[in-house]
Design goal:
This protein is of the alpha+beta class. The protein has helices at about 1-10, 10-20, 35-50, 80-85, 130-145, and strands at about 60, 65, 70, 75-80, 145-150, 175-180. It has five helices and six strands. The longest helix has 18 residues, at about 130-145.
Length: about 180
C-alpha cells in the first residue's frame, strides 16, 4: 500500500483520477471493478511494482522434464523469482517507475498482463486470488473515496527500493490524511 500512496502523492494524474474520476459513487460494489479500468490498472501496478513476496513458494518436480534444453530431474525443489519477472527491463519499459497506464489500451480499456504473477501461476497458483483482488478493490476505493493521502512534508520521502527478504515490508513512513467529504 505504501507504494500506492507514494505514487498517488507524487503523481497528479493518479491523484486527480481518484479524487474526481472514480469517486462519484458513495458505495462500490464488486461489479464496478470491471467498469473502472484505471483503478484496476493501478491495483495491478501496485502488485507488480511492490512484489511483496519477491520469491514464489517452493515447488518440487514430480517427474523429470525438459525446459529450454535443460533436463530437470525428478525430486528437485525450485522456486520462481517473481521480483525478477515483475522488473525485467527487457519486457517492462521503465520497470522501476509506478505507471498504471502500462495496463491501459489505446481505447482506455484495462489490459491484464500475463507477466504480473503476484499469486503465482498454473496449478499451484493461489486459490484466493479472486477474493483477494475484490477485497483489494473495495479497500482501495473505500479509502480513496474518503481520504486524500499526502506524504508528510516534514519527513523524507520513503525509499521504495527493494530490501532483500522473504517478504518486502513497506519502509517506515508518515502520511497525512485529509477528509475528502469536507
Amino acid at each position: 500500500m505504501v507504494g500506492l500512496v507514494a505514487a498517488i502523492c507524487e503523481n497528479d494524474q493518479i491523484n486527480s483520477y481518484f479524487a474526481h474520476g472514480c469517486m462519484e459513487r458513495t458505495n462500490f460494489m464488486v461489479n464496478y471493478v470491471f467498469r473502472m479500468p484505471y483503478t484496476e490498472a493501478t491495483m495491478l501496478e501496485v502488485l507488480r511494482k511492490g512484489s511483496i513476496v519477491p520469491l514464489g513458494l517452493f515447488h518440487k518436480s514430480i517427474n523429470e522434464f525438459e525446459y529450454k534444453g535443460f533436463t530437470i530431474p525428478n525430486d528437485i525443489i525450485f522456486l520462481s523469482n517473481t521480483y525478477a519477472v515483475h522488473h525485467d527491463p527487457e519486457y517492462w519499459e521503465k520497470p522501476y517507475e509506478f505507471r498504471p497506464q502500462r495496463f491501459i489500451t489505446a481505447t482506455g480499456e484495462f489490459r491484464k498482463d500475463e507477466r504480473v504473477i503476484p499469486f503465482s501461476v498454473g496449478k499451484k497458483s493461489c486459490p484466493g486470488e479472486k477474493l483477494a483482488m475484490i477485497q483489494f478493490f473495495l479497500f482501495l476505493t473505500g479509502l480513496l473515496q474518503k481520504f486524500e493521502f499526502t506524504l508528510n512534508p516534514n519527513e523524507p520521502v520513503p525509499c521504495l527500493d527493494m530490501k532483500a527478504g522473504f517478504v518486502i515490508p513497506p519502509p517506515p513512513h508518515k502520511l497525512i490524511l485529509k477528509d475528502r467529504r469536507n
